Amino acid sequence: xxxxxxxxxxxxxxxxxxxxxxxxxxxxxxxxxxxxxxxxxxxxxxxxxxxxxxxxxxxxxxxxxxxxxxxxxxxxxxxxxxxxxxxxxxxxxxxxxxxxxxxxxxxxxxxxxxxxxxxx
Length: 120
Prior knowledge:
Elements lengths: L1 E8 L2 H11 L6 E6 L7 H6 L4 E6 L9 H12 L5 E5 L6 H8 L2 H4 L2 E9 L1
Parallel strand pairs: 1-4, 1-5, 2-3, 2-4
């Protein structure tokens, strides 16, 4: 079972810093980051020496315009069965729909909602 931590609020850099600070380097983890890196590749640099796979998806609401992209990315990632998954979303307006998406029948046996990280 993969524990999902939703990461929202703040800037992309703030969300990446929160993930880097929260991730346990001893546990196989993954992060799906909505949006492109700002050129500093903060999370990729922090992931060196950790068991953290970073995947980036184009900006777009995970439950609306980015639904297919998120679904494909999530399905590929779940083949590796990470213990933790950080899902960084740029806009939390549809957070309840994203949670519903993560609780769909096809994901129930693979995902468990965990804590939420909210950045300022």
